[in-house]
Amino acid sequence: MHFNPYGGAAAQVAAALVNLGPAPADELARTLRANGMSVSSISAEDAAAVGEWARRLREVFAEADPDRRVDLVNQLLADSACRPYVSRHDGKPAHLHYASEHADGAQRVRAYTAGGIAHLLCEAPSRMGACAGEDCSTVFVDTSRNGRRRFCSTRCATRVHVAEHRRRAATLSV
């Protein structure tokens, strides 16, 4: 499934931040760049702020109640001071940002991910998920064709299905 740039890439950055958790600035910057966000560097202070932001993003992915999820996203949007800016930087043509290109790293991450989660929530809320694996806390944006993803990876799904199979086999053999 294809999303607009904020609903897709930014929502996937949000999931990556949740899965990363609190991290040193250099690791955070690598994760942001690996997920398509233009970031030259992140300060240690910004990294700490983004770690706390990731905790709040996790609440959105994990929330099952649609009304509560909307409330959480609206609070993220309000707290990120998210508003559109047309930006031109690094030789790129004019494009939309939800924070000024002069904002600090944490502010840019908050605005970008809050905007992405908001777009995803409005366009395809069922595609925001948390792994159904009992011992897994990974979150994801479901980009599968049918939109029925339950697990973070094939490995996690296999682990759960094998455990279920073994439980069924054990009850049948008793």
UniProtKB/TrEMBL annotation:
Domain Zinc finger CGNR: 127-168
Matching Gene3D superfamilies: Jann2411-like domain (1.10.3300.10)
Superkingdom per UniProt: Bacteria
Pfam families, alphabetized: zf-CGNR
Record-linked SUPFAM superfamilies: Jann2411-like (SSF160904)
Protein's recorded name: CGNR zinc finger domain-containing protein
Organism the protein comes from: Amycolatopsis acidiphila
